[in-house]
Amino acid sequence: MIKHFSSKDFSKDTSSPVIVFGNFDGVHLGHQELIQRAKKKGAMLCGTCVVYTFNPHPAKILAPEHPPRLLQTPEQKIAALKTIGVDVCIMEPFTSDFSHMHADDFFKKIIVERLNASAIVVGYDFTFGIHREGTSDTLSNLACSQGIEIDKVEAQFREETLISSTNIRGMISDGDIDMANSLLGRPYSIEGMVISGRGLGGALDAHTANMRTYNELTPRNGVYITETIVEGVEKPYPSVTSIGDNPTFPDSDFAIETHLLDVDMNLLGKNIEIGFLKRVRDQVAFRSQKDLKERIRMDIETSRTFHQAKRDTN
């Protein structure tokens, strides 16, 4: 996949660009439907599937006091788009000056002059231009005047739930990993670097890697069955992960700690990615370290059983 960090760099020699617009935070099943439509149209035109998105998210500029906690880092978004077969990704810098561009100007300067669009795919709620003055209907009228095909994709649902980044953020914040993963089409994951932790793992018979995450959104505090990808290793390791401040130890700070099942590895200083598969329990205060140790043993066994069943079905 070719990456451009401005539409100014987009090649005018690109074959029949089919442009799909959106923020694509999470690259969830709704986003994937947009992209599949663009890929099909591109195949019909012998053209190129081009994702046009922004960095940072427009809300970071337009509503900095209440920005959404994003589901992905820019690097995770690019990787997800590459995985589903996008040909070109443009991550347009979103600035205050850019936000003042009118819809007509955006269409003329970006869509026509820079992108030379042959066709456009957008979602049902697409808006563009200052104060969101342009809608998908506005875009349809403008595109028609230039002979550009447009495909408007209706809202996508899973089990009567709207597939949207906002809904997925709420589910992850509530710890509803099963439903969030269902809307994403894959496990929710966070990335980060392993740093020195509290040093309690040995005493609890469960050595853990303490992660400082690059992501803005972590699942609700609790214990989760997970899989962990270690920098330089392609295959994920089965794991169990704790998020929170461990109320058994009142002076503990917030931590993300993952334990690789049946693997002894020094991860300090390495980048890891944790994928969340299933929530096990809330974080609770135990009466003693012995009780906590026993519960951790049970959590590890629960995770081991889950992963074994997963292997057996694959």
Structure report:
Strand 2 (17-21), helix 1 (29-45) and strand 3 form a beta-alpha-beta unit. Helix 7 (165-174) packs antiparallel against helix 8 (177-184). The longest helix is centred in the last third of the chain and has 25 residues, at 289-313. The strands form four sheets. This protein has a six-stranded parallel beta sheet with strand order 1-4-3-2-5-8, sandwiched between helices. Strands 11-12-15-14-13-16 form a six-stranded antiparallel beta barrel. A two-stranded antiparallel sheet has the order 6-7. The protein has two domains: 2-158, Rossmann fold; 187-313, Riboflavin kinase-like (Elongation Factor Tu (Ef-tu), domain 3, Beta Barrel). Helices cover 32% and strands 28% of the residues. With 314 residues, the chain is an alpha/beta fold. It is built from nine helices and 16 strands. The protein starts with a strand and ends with a helix. The chain is elongated, with a radius of gyration of 22 Å.
Q: Total strand count, please?
A: 16
List the helices and strands in order.
EEHEHHEHHEEEHEEEHHEEEEEEH
What's the structural domain tally?
2
What's the alpha carbon Rg, rounded to whole Å? 22 Å
Based on secondary structure, the structural category is alpha/beta
In CATH, the architecture of the largest domain is 3-Layer(aba) Sandwich
Biggest sheet overview? 6 strands, parallel
Query: Level of helix content?
Result: 25-40%
Mean pLDDT across residues: 93
CATH topology of the largest domain: Rossmann fold
The CATH superfamily of the largest domain is identified as HUPs
Instruction: Report the uncertain regions.
Output: none
Percent in strands: 25-35%
Q: What is the terminal separation in angstroms?
A: 29 Å
- Structural shape: elongated
Number of helices: 9
Describe the strand arrangement of the main beta sheet, using strand numbers. 1-4-3-2-5-8
